[in-house]
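Deliverable D5.2: sample structural annotation.
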Amino acid sequence: MRRREFIMLIGGAVTWPVRVGAQQPALPVVALVSLRSGEASVRLADAFRKGLEEAGYVEGQNVTVQYDWLDGRFDRLSSVMADLVRRRVAVIATPGGTYASQAAKAATTTIPIVFGVGDDPVRLRLVASLARPGGNATGYNLSVSEIPTKRLELLHALVPKAVRIAMLVNPENVPVAAGTLHDVPEAARAIGLHIQILNASTKDEIEAAFASLVRDQIDALFVAPDTYFISQRDQLVALAARYRIPAPIPFGRMSKPAG
Protein backbone atom coordinates (compact mmCIF):
# COMPACT_ATOMS: atom_id res chain seq x y z
CA MET A 1 0.00 0.00 0.00
CA ARG A 2 1.25 3.48 -0.83
CA ARG A 3 2.22 5.79 2.02
CA ARG A 4 -0.26 8.42 0.80
CA GLU A 5 -3.16 5.94 0.94
CA PHE A 6 -2.28 4.96 4.51
CA ILE A 7 -2.05 8.61 5.57
CA MET A 8 -5.49 9.23 4.08
CA LEU A 9 -6.96 6.24 5.94
CA ILE A 10 -5.52 7.24 9.30
CA GLY A 11 -6.10 10.94 8.67
CA GLY A 12 -9.78 10.36 8.03
CA ALA A 13 -10.03 8.29 11.17
CA VAL A 14 -8.41 10.98 13.32
CA THR A 15 -11.26 13.37 12.56
CA TRP A 16 -13.92 10.96 13.80
CA PRO A 17 -13.90 11.54 17.61
CA VAL A 18 -16.30 14.29 18.75
CA ARG A 19 -15.86 16.29 21.94
CA VAL A 20 -18.71 15.76 24.39
CA GLY A 21 -18.91 18.44 27.05
CA ALA A 22 -15.54 18.87 28.72
CA GLN A 23 -14.42 15.31 28.07
CA GLN A 24 -11.20 14.71 26.19
CA PRO A 25 -12.00 12.85 22.96
CA ALA A 26 -10.75 9.28 22.76
CA LEU A 27 -7.85 8.62 20.45
CA PRO A 28 -8.63 6.71 17.25
CA VAL A 29 -7.74 3.03 17.55
CA VAL A 30 -5.71 1.19 14.92
CA ALA A 31 -6.01 -2.57 15.39
CA LEU A 32 -3.10 -4.74 14.28
CA VAL A 33 -4.26 -8.36 13.97
CA SER A 34 -1.78 -11.15 13.30
CA LEU A 35 -1.75 -14.92 13.63
CA ARG A 36 1.86 -14.70 14.79
CA SER A 37 2.88 -14.76 18.43
CA GLY A 38 3.77 -11.53 20.19
CA GLU A 39 7.25 -12.87 21.01
CA ALA A 40 7.97 -13.51 17.33
CA SER A 41 6.58 -10.16 16.18
CA VAL A 42 8.71 -7.59 17.97
CA ARG A 43 10.23 -6.36 14.71
CA LEU A 44 6.84 -6.26 13.02
CA ALA A 45 5.40 -4.13 15.82
CA ASP A 46 8.42 -1.81 15.78
CA ALA A 47 8.16 -1.38 12.00
CA PHE A 48 4.43 -0.73 12.27
CA ARG A 49 4.95 1.99 14.87
CA LYS A 50 7.73 3.52 12.78
CA GLY A 51 5.44 3.63 9.75
CA LEU A 52 2.76 5.35 11.77
CA GLU A 53 5.25 7.92 13.06
CA GLU A 54 6.45 8.63 9.52
CA ALA A 55 2.82 9.33 8.64
CA GLY A 56 2.52 11.73 11.60
CA TYR A 57 0.86 9.44 14.14
CA VAL A 58 2.55 8.63 17.44
CA GLU A 59 1.21 5.82 19.60
CA GLY A 60 -0.23 7.19 22.82
CA GLN A 61 -0.26 10.79 21.60
CA ASN A 62 -2.68 11.02 18.69
CA VAL A 63 -3.46 7.34 18.01
CA THR A 64 -3.90 4.15 20.02
CA VAL A 65 -2.60 0.85 18.63
CA GLN A 66 -4.24 -2.38 19.73
CA TYR A 67 -2.13 -5.48 19.13
CA ASP A 68 -3.93 -8.80 18.73
CA TRP A 69 -1.32 -11.59 18.48
CA LEU A 70 -3.31 -14.79 18.02
CA ASP A 71 -0.37 -17.23 18.11
CA GLY A 72 -1.85 -19.49 15.43
CA ARG A 73 -5.35 -19.52 16.98
CA PHE A 74 -7.42 -19.33 13.81
CA ASP A 75 -10.53 -20.12 15.86
CA ARG A 76 -10.24 -16.72 17.58
CA LEU A 77 -10.34 -14.65 14.39
CA SER A 78 -14.12 -14.28 14.17
CA SER A 79 -14.56 -13.19 17.78
CA VAL A 80 -11.61 -10.76 17.61
CA MET A 81 -12.97 -9.15 14.44
CA ALA A 82 -16.49 -8.95 15.87
CA ASP A 83 -15.12 -7.17 18.95
CA LEU A 84 -13.19 -4.66 16.80
CA VAL A 85 -16.31 -3.92 14.76
CA ARG A 86 -18.39 -3.52 17.91
CA ARG A 87 -15.86 -1.04 19.29
CA ARG A 88 -15.75 0.82 15.95
CA VAL A 89 -11.97 0.97 15.66
CA ALA A 90 -10.63 3.38 13.06
CA VAL A 91 -8.59 0.90 10.99
CA ILE A 92 -7.93 -2.85 10.98
CA ALA A 93 -4.44 -3.81 9.78
CA THR A 94 -3.77 -7.42 8.82
CA PRO A 95 -0.18 -7.53 7.46
CA GLY A 96 1.00 -10.85 6.08
CA GLY A 97 -2.19 -12.75 6.81
CA THR A 98 -4.60 -14.06 4.19
CA TYR A 99 -6.96 -15.61 6.72
CA ALA A 100 -6.93 -12.54 8.98
CA SER A 101 -7.59 -10.27 6.00
CA GLN A 102 -10.51 -12.39 4.85
CA ALA A 103 -11.92 -12.48 8.39
CA ALA A 104 -11.73 -8.70 8.59
CA LYS A 105 -13.43 -8.32 5.22
CA ALA A 106 -16.20 -10.70 6.29
CA ALA A 107 -16.72 -8.77 9.53
CA THR A 108 -17.14 -5.24 8.16
CA THR A 109 -17.88 -3.33 4.98
CA THR A 110 -17.29 0.09 6.52
CA ILE A 111 -14.17 0.05 8.72
CA PRO A 112 -11.04 0.58 6.57
CA ILE A 113 -8.90 -2.56 6.23
CA VAL A 114 -5.19 -2.48 5.34
CA PHE A 115 -4.09 -5.97 4.31
CA GLY A 116 -0.90 -7.73 3.28
CA VAL A 117 -1.38 -11.03 1.42
CA GLY A 118 0.70 -13.42 -0.62
CA ASP A 119 -2.02 -14.24 -3.13
CA ASP A 120 -4.20 -12.39 -5.62
CA PRO A 121 -6.44 -10.06 -3.55
CA VAL A 122 -9.06 -10.20 -6.31
CA ARG A 123 -9.20 -14.00 -6.14
CA LEU A 124 -9.39 -13.73 -2.35
CA ARG A 125 -12.36 -11.33 -2.80
CA LEU A 126 -10.68 -8.60 -0.79
CA VAL A 127 -10.97 -6.10 -3.66
CA ALA A 128 -13.05 -5.85 -6.82
CA SER A 129 -10.02 -5.31 -9.06
CA LEU A 130 -6.43 -4.14 -8.80
CA ALA A 131 -7.13 -1.00 -10.81
CA ARG A 132 -10.32 -0.13 -8.91
CA PRO A 133 -10.33 -1.91 -5.54
CA GLY A 134 -13.55 -0.32 -4.31
CA GLY A 135 -15.01 -1.24 -0.94
CA ASN A 136 -13.22 -0.68 2.35
CA ALA A 137 -10.01 -2.70 1.82
CA THR A 138 -6.64 -1.76 0.40
CA GLY A 139 -3.12 -3.07 0.85
CA TYR A 140 -0.35 -4.92 -0.91
CA ASN A 141 0.17 -8.26 -2.62
CA LEU A 142 3.50 -9.99 -2.03
CA SER A 143 3.02 -12.16 -5.15
CA VAL A 144 4.40 -15.31 -3.53
CA SER A 145 2.00 -17.87 -5.00
CA GLU A 146 4.81 -19.46 -7.05
CA ILE A 147 7.42 -19.37 -4.28
CA PRO A 148 6.60 -22.77 -2.68
CA THR A 149 7.46 -24.68 -5.84
CA LYS A 150 10.59 -22.57 -6.32
CA ARG A 151 11.62 -23.37 -2.75
CA LEU A 152 11.13 -27.08 -3.44
CA GLU A 153 13.38 -26.80 -6.49
CA LEU A 154 15.96 -24.98 -4.39
CA LEU A 155 15.81 -27.71 -1.73
CA HIS A 156 16.36 -30.33 -4.42
CA ALA A 157 19.35 -28.40 -5.77
CA LEU A 158 20.91 -27.99 -2.31
CA VAL A 159 20.29 -31.60 -1.24
CA PRO A 160 20.26 -33.52 -4.55
CA LYS A 161 20.35 -36.94 -2.85
CA ALA A 162 17.15 -36.25 -0.92
CA VAL A 163 14.26 -38.23 -2.40
CA ARG A 164 11.82 -38.70 0.49
CA ILE A 165 10.55 -35.23 1.45
CA ALA A 166 8.16 -34.51 4.30
CA MET A 167 5.93 -31.48 3.83
CA LEU A 168 4.75 -29.71 6.98
CA VAL A 169 1.40 -27.92 6.59
CA ASN A 170 -0.95 -26.20 9.00
CA PRO A 171 -4.48 -27.60 8.43
CA GLU A 172 -5.97 -24.66 10.34
CA ASN A 173 -4.79 -22.24 7.64
CA VAL A 174 -7.02 -23.58 4.88
CA PRO A 175 -6.06 -21.21 2.00
CA VAL A 176 -2.31 -21.72 2.40
CA ALA A 177 -2.59 -25.44 3.13
CA ALA A 178 -4.85 -26.03 0.12
CA GLY A 179 -2.56 -24.12 -2.24
CA THR A 180 0.57 -25.86 -0.96
CA LEU A 181 -1.02 -29.32 -1.11
CA HIS A 182 -2.08 -28.64 -4.69
CA ASP A 183 1.14 -27.13 -6.07
CA VAL A 184 4.05 -28.76 -4.24
CA PRO A 185 3.25 -32.50 -4.73
CA GLU A 186 2.74 -31.86 -8.45
CA ALA A 187 6.11 -30.11 -8.67
CA ALA A 188 7.71 -32.90 -6.61
CA ARG A 189 6.53 -35.60 -9.01
CA ALA A 190 8.00 -33.66 -11.92
CA ILE A 191 11.51 -33.88 -10.41
CA GLY A 192 11.20 -37.40 -9.01
CA LEU A 193 10.57 -36.63 -5.33
CA HIS A 194 8.24 -38.48 -2.98
CA ILE A 195 6.17 -36.28 -0.67
CA GLN A 196 4.83 -37.28 2.76
CA ILE A 197 2.34 -34.88 4.40
CA LEU A 198 2.72 -33.90 8.06
CA ASN A 199 0.12 -31.72 9.80
CA ALA A 200 0.84 -29.36 12.69
CA SER A 201 -0.91 -26.31 14.12
CA THR A 202 0.65 -26.13 17.62
CA LYS A 203 4.15 -26.22 19.11
CA ASP A 204 3.58 -29.74 20.43
CA GLU A 205 2.39 -30.96 17.03
CA ILE A 206 5.49 -29.48 15.42
CA GLU A 207 7.62 -31.40 17.93
CA ALA A 208 5.73 -34.61 17.14
CA ALA A 209 6.09 -34.06 13.39
CA PHE A 210 9.87 -33.78 13.69
CA ALA A 211 10.05 -36.88 15.88
CA SER A 212 8.37 -38.86 13.09
CA LEU A 213 10.96 -37.79 10.50
CA VAL A 214 13.67 -40.14 11.81
CA ARG A 215 11.23 -43.02 12.22
CA ASP A 216 10.05 -42.66 8.63
CA GLN A 217 13.58 -42.13 7.26
CA ILE A 218 12.81 -38.76 5.72
CA ASP A 219 15.65 -37.09 3.78
CA ALA A 220 14.51 -33.46 4.08
CA LEU A 221 11.64 -31.29 5.29
CA PHE A 222 9.65 -28.75 3.30
CA VAL A 223 7.77 -26.24 5.47
CA ALA A 224 4.69 -24.56 3.99
CA PRO A 225 4.80 -20.71 3.92
CA ASP A 226 2.31 -20.43 6.76
CA THR A 227 2.03 -17.42 9.08
CA TYR A 228 2.19 -19.59 12.19
CA PHE A 229 5.25 -21.49 10.97
CA ILE A 230 6.97 -18.19 10.22
CA SER A 231 6.35 -17.09 13.79
CA GLN A 232 7.77 -20.44 15.01
CA ARG A 233 10.85 -20.41 12.79
CA ASP A 234 13.21 -20.43 15.79
CA GLN A 235 11.60 -23.65 16.99
CA LEU A 236 11.71 -25.11 13.47
CA VAL A 237 15.39 -24.24 13.00
CA ALA A 238 16.28 -25.71 16.42
CA LEU A 239 14.41 -28.95 15.71
CA ALA A 240 15.92 -29.27 12.24
CA ALA A 241 19.39 -28.95 13.78
CA ARG A 242 18.56 -31.45 16.55
CA TYR A 243 17.28 -34.07 14.13
CA ARG A 244 19.88 -33.21 11.45
CA ILE A 245 17.18 -32.64 8.81
CA PRO A 246 17.75 -30.19 5.93
CA ALA A 247 14.81 -27.79 6.04
CA PRO A 248 14.29 -24.44 4.25
CA ILE A 249 12.31 -22.33 6.72
CA PRO A 250 9.94 -19.72 5.21
CA PHE A 251 11.34 -16.19 5.59
CA GLY A 252 14.08 -17.65 7.74
CA ARG A 253 17.22 -19.46 6.79
CA MET A 254 18.24 -22.83 5.45
CA SER A 255 18.83 -25.23 8.32
CA LYS A 256 21.37 -27.86 7.39
CA PRO A 257 22.85 -30.54 9.64
CA ALA A 258 26.48 -30.01 10.56
CA GLY A 259 29.15 -32.40 9.40
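Annotation notes: The longest helix spans residues 174-190. The domain at 147-255 is CATH 3.40.50.2300 (Rossmann fold).
The annotation will be released with the project's public dataset once the embargo ends.
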